[in-house]
Specification:
mainly alpha
């Protein structure tokens, strides 16, 4: 059957659909960057309060503030990834969450950390799954767009 739409029309529609769907993934990453920024900034400015929220005692060491600096830097990176639509890096966020959860699990098993670590693992898992499902939706749109070209 002869279509009334040109390839350029279909391509334009696909680009619009992809950008609309990519906003889900970008929202996931942008939200994670805001979480990291708030957490990191609070670790720099109010380390005792921040560490206390997670149930740990503040030992006054520099590592808490240094970890906050790393968190803020990572937050700025994730924000730019979402802002400039660097989709090639989206899957690396998932890999980072999986690595983080693997390390936390190893700490629990080795007895280095206690059960308070589970709360952080739940946050990691939630952020990871949000990004995974957003990326799957993007890929579904790409597959539908590819089949509509024929």
């Amino acid at each position: 059957m002869l279509s009334y739409y040109s390839f350029a029309d279909v391509k334009f529609a696909v680009v619009i659909l992809i950008r609309k769907r990519m906003k889900r993934t970008e929202l996931s990453i942008k939200t994670w960057s805001i979480y990291l920024f708030v957490l990191g900034f609070s670790m720099i400015v109010l380390p005792a309060t921040t560490v206390g929220l997670f149930g740990y005692a503040n030992d006054g060491e520099l590592w808490i503030r240094f970890t906050g600096i790393l968190s803020v830097v990572l937050a700025l990176f994730y924000y730019q990834v979402s802002r400039y639509h660097l989709s090639e890096l989206f899957s690396w966020k998932i890999a980072g969450h999986l690595l983080g959860m693997a390390c936390m699990t190893a700490f629990l098993v080795a007895g280095i950390a206690d059960n308070r670590m589970i709360g952080t693992m739940v946050v990691e898992l939630g952020a990871c799954l949000w990004t995974v499902f957003a990326l799957r939706a993007d890929k579904r749109i790409l597959r539908l767009a590819a089949t509509s070209k024929t």
